[in-house]
């Protein structure tokens, strides 16, 4: 996620903004509030900024159905948000998203808008009242790509106790697939934070698809691990699911890694896991790999509760 200033596109009319893949072109010449969304010279949607007065703007957007799930909406909303704050000089940019619209909530969050609250029965659609989630970004908010900004963004949109789902993918030699991520030095299992209203198994499958580009069948639960507050994060519960045993070459050839998140992946021995992962992650994996067949472990900080070993 990035919020660097939008770049004027030299090949587009004045007033166009681009991040290299998505371009916002003014819907009418000189209009800095209403844009069509283009990629590779194709119009795929629209985004608008409404000036509500008092330095506050409100975002609305839409992407044509055939062009959804390709990241265009997130990029367009991100461009419009930064444009509103830096070019239009607004103090606050907000969006009101129906609480049931999980895709739009995800788009707003990834574009750097923090979840602020719920307006109950705020809108009427098809004769029924619906709740609306308010998300916003202020000029003084830390940049979303910084650690402080990222933590604040995630904490605003998720339950206070985070739920994390990772997948244990092994090869016939019992090596485990690890991913080197772009945003921290330690390596991780595929997976990540489970979103609101998403089951842990669904979250594991979605994160694996987003990071590795494959739809991997998610197997049985292997462990449940409670993690205390750490480095600004609230406490969390981490679940490990079985991702099966695979031949490395055939599996790796199917991957399409997300370049903004994953640098590389590798099947690793337990000794390599110890070297590359945080101590708690190593303890957790060692416990799971050493457990009897069919066992589901309950752990705290990667170890059996009451373990005499010092936990770091």
UniProtKB/TrEMBL annotation:
Chain segments annotated as coiled-coil in the UniProt record: none
TM segment ranges: none
Classification of source organism: Bacteria, Bacillati, Actinomycetota, Actinomycetes, Propionibacteriales
N-terminal signal peptide: none
InterPro entries for the chain: Acyl_CoA_acyltransferase, GNAT_dom, Nudix_hydrolase, NUDIX_hydrolase-like_dom_sf, NUDIX_hydrolase_CS, NUDIX_hydrolase_dom, Ribosomal_N-acetyltransferase
CDD domains documented for this protein: NUDIX_Hydrolase (cd18876)
Organism this protein belongs to: Actinopolymorpha rutila
Keywords of this entry: Hydrolase
Domain Nudix hydrolase: 159-290
GO cellular component entries: cytoplasm
Gene Ontology terms for molecular function: hydrolase activity; protein N-terminal-serine acetyltransferase activity; protein-N-terminal-alanine acetyltransferase activity
Protein name (Swiss-Prot/TrEMBL): 8-oxo-dGTP pyrophosphatase MutT (NUDIX family)
